[in-house]
Design goal:
Helices cover about 85% and strands about 0% of the residues. With about 120 residues, the chain is mainly α.
């Protein structure tokens, strides 16, 4: 029955639970059209509107943060203060060689110490 607002309201509640907010919004608007005095549907619609506003603000904040980070990266790159990938790889390779040399020296000391023990 097209005029059965209670069934639409129950479907809207299910849609909200399944996070199908647009479907819920449509159903709740139909409930409001059929029964303008139904307070619960008006309250849920207001909460869905607030949720949408919060989501839009979060997206705007995220976009603003990404833009600021991109601008900061561009500024650093323009100053030439950041090493390129090859310089980073070379530094890592150099650190790895130093670590290997230290481990080799430490291993030689342990082996010599082991030989001295009876």
């Amino acid at each position: 029955d097209e005029g059965h607002w209670r069934a639409r309201f129950q479907l809207a509640v299910i849609a909200v639970r399944w996070e199908m907010y647009e479907d819920a919004r449509t159903l709740l608007a139909e409930v409001q059209a059929l029964n303008p005095s139904h307070e619960q549907s008006a309250e849920i619609l207001a909460k869905l509107d607030a949720l949408e506003e919060a989501r839009a603000l979060d997206e705007a904040d995220q976009a603003q943060a990404e833009a600021a980070a991109a601008q900061a990266r561009a500024h650093l790159n323009a100053q030439g203060g950041l090493p390129d990938d090859a310089a980073i790889a070379a530094e890592l390779d150099e650190d790895d060689w130093r670590d290997l040399e230290r481990m080799a020296k430490a291993g030689e000391g342990e082996q010599e110490g082991d030989e001295k023990k009876p």
